[in-house]
Amino acid sequence: MNEIHISMSGSPGAEFSAHWRITHEGETTEHVEDRGTVPAEYTFIGTELEGAVKLLSDDEQLDVDIQKGTNRTRSSTQGVGGTLTLVMR
Known about the structure:
- The chain is 0% helix and 73% strand.
- The protein has strands at 3-10, 15-24, 27-37, 40-45, 48-55, 61-68, 71-78, 83-88.
- It has a four-stranded antiparallel sheet with strand order 4-1-6-7, with no helix packed on it. Strands 3-2-5-8 form a four-stranded antiparallel sheet, with no helix packed on it.
């Protein structure tokens, strides 16, 4: 199995929205978080992940760390409306 782990950090209490598309064995599922808060963690089983994360809080920072096996990507954004588009294959 391929485990994809997402860790959201940054300014404590910062609010975000996230839309994840996870593909596993040819099937794609979606997970939507309309209003999450930092810190947050998600774990999915899949071979591919696509996501869009938008910071909803002003004057806050959002850091997103995604790990799948030995591959890791880190991204961050600051300020209300900051959006990250993330892909892990």
